[in-house]
Amino acid sequence: MIVEERIYTLHPGQAGAYLKAYEAEGMAIQKPILGRMVGYYQTEFGTLNQVIHMWAYEDLAERAERRARLAADARWQAYIAKVRPMILKQENKLLLPAPFLKVKWQD
Fold first, then answer.
1. At how many degrees (to 10) do helices 27-34 and 74-83 cross?
2. Rounded distance, CA 95 to CA 98, Å?
3. Residue 72: domain span
4. Cβ partners under 8 Å of residue 73, min gap 6
5. pLDDT in tens, 38-74
6. Fewer CB under 10 Å: which end of the chain, C or N?
7. Is residue 15 part of a domain?
8. Is 100 within the bounds of a domain?
9. How far are the Cα atoms of 24, 61, 87 from residue 51, in angstroms, in the given order?
10. Is residue 105 part of a domain?
């Protein structure tokens, strides 16, 4: 199992609009395709105006297949065109579990 952490730093004042757009439109497209949402968060302290979301995959091959399906989805492309102007910066991290962590994900 791997977890992808995606951190979006938004332009000041855009976090609320971004989260509303995701709840209203983006989540219904993304979640069925990517599958295992670990969490979706916004920052309150530290670096502000950030949205962090994490997705679990069995391996890099599953991640690549699911991300390709999402990128090819016309609904997702239309949604991204709406929210992209809100995003200032994006960071992605691949998180590997510690050897002792045994997690079973349910789709």
1. 130
2. 9
3. 2-95
4. 29, 33
5. 999 999 999 999 999 999 999 999 999 999 999 999 9
6. C
7. yes
8. no
9. 16, 25, 10
10. no
